[in-house]
């Protein structure tokens, strides 16, 4: 690539474990279903050392920035949220790490607010108040790093048992369009971060994103160069119609998925962004956990847009 300018790493669905001990009161909610699911399924395949292997490889590749698209925790207990806040500090400083929440981060009513307060340095925009404020609207946010505009959106809402859907509001859509237009006028490469896949049919009905058509209108009207998401625990590539051409929509496997599960092994994407407005170059490289879980290997790359 000519004149490489920015390396952006993307991970998602961290699901930090193990689960802490929960009180009867904490389990007397939707958390009981997640608690059972964790011990029956996810506990067997989600491993902290797998996540560490990915993060070490990302650092070795000298990424300029890390995007984390949600589900840092499992049941959104207070202890989990605080543990995730401490984990973020070990990953990187807020200048080089951007987070958007997932459905597990808003697992029960009240959890979303606790998580955003605790993770605030990593979810606030460049012009947001320095300190968390009650009833503050965080999303969408804008962070500018070099010639890259990182636009964080949220689909995280508390849902009933056996549901994992997300919601993208009309208010958020209007504000996202304005941000994208302004960033485009400023000559920036626009990356939109969101948890749920904004693609119809990308996941089952009870896990879907409500507001997919609204989000598609945002991208076609406001414009973007790249959309990143998680939620499905799959390595995927879809496309949305953009303001001037097709926009790649990229999903990634869970960053904690070990060997032997039904879903793909843990992986991260590394995007190299170069060029200039009207002539951007975007290279995507995927790195995943190897067959024996001892390291991270490349899976190849694609030029997604020029």
Plain-language structure description:
The protein is α/β, with parallel strands linked by helices. It has one domain: Metallo-dependent phosphatases (Purple Acid Phosphatase, chain A, domain 2, 4-Layer Sandwich), CATH 3.60.21.10. It is 28% helix and 27% strand. A six-stranded mixed beta sheet has the order 3-2-1-12-13-14. Helix 4 packs parallel to helix 5. The radius of gyration is 18 Å and the shape is globular. The N and C termini lie close together (10 Å).
Number of domains: 1
Straight-line distance between termini: 10 Å
CATH architecture: 4-Layer Sandwich
The ordered string of helix (H) and strand (E) elements is EHHHEHEHHEEEHEEHEEEEEE
Largest sheet: 6 strands, mixed
Mean pLDDT: 90
Q: Please name the fourth-level CATH homologous superfamily.
A: Metallo-dependent phosphatases
Rounded to an integer, what's the Rg over CA atoms? 18 Å
GO molecular function: hydrolase activity; metal ion binding
Keywords: Hydrolase, Iron, Metal-binding
Organism: Rhizobium hainanense
Domain Calcineurin-like phosphoesterase: 7-233
């Amino acid at each position: 690539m000519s004149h490489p300018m920015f390396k952006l790493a993307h991970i998602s669905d961290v699901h930090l474990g193990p689960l802490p001990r929960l009180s009867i009161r904490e389990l007397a909610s939707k958390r009981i279903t997640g608690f059972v699911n964790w011990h029956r399924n996810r506990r067997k395949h989600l491993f902290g050392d797998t996540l560490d292997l990915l993060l070490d490889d990302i650092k070795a590749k000298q990424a300029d920035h890390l995007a984390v698209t949600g589900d840092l925790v499992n049941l959104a207990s207070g202890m989990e949220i605080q543990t995730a806040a401490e984990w973020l500090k070990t990953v990187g400083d807020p200048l080089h790490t951007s987070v958007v929440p997932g459905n597990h981060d808003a697992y029960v009513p009240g959890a979303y607010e606790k998580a955003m307060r605790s993770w605030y340095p990593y979810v606030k925009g460049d012009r947001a108040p320095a300190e968390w404020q009650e009833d503050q609207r965080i999303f969408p946010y804008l962070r500018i790093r070099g010639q890259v505009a990182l636009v964080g959106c949220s689909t995280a809402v508390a849902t009933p048992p056996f549901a994992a859907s997300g919601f993208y509001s009309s208010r958020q859509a209007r504000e996202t369009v304005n941000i994208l237009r302004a960033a485009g006028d400023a000559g920036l490469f626009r990356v939109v971060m969101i948890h749920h896949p904004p693609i119809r049919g990308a996941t089952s009905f009870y896990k879907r994103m409500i507001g997919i058509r609204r989000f598609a209108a945002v991208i076609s009207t406001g414009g973007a160069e790249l959309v990143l998401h998680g939620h499905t625990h799959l390595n995927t590539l879809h496309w949305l119609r953009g303001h001037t051409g097709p926009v790649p929509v990229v999903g990634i496997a869970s960053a904690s998925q070990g060997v032997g599960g039904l879903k793909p092994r843990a992986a991260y994407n590394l995007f190299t962004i170069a060029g200039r407005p009207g002539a951007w170059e975007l290279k995507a490289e995927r790195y995943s956990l190897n067959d024996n879980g001892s390291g991270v290997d490349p899976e190849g790359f694609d030029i997604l847009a020029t």
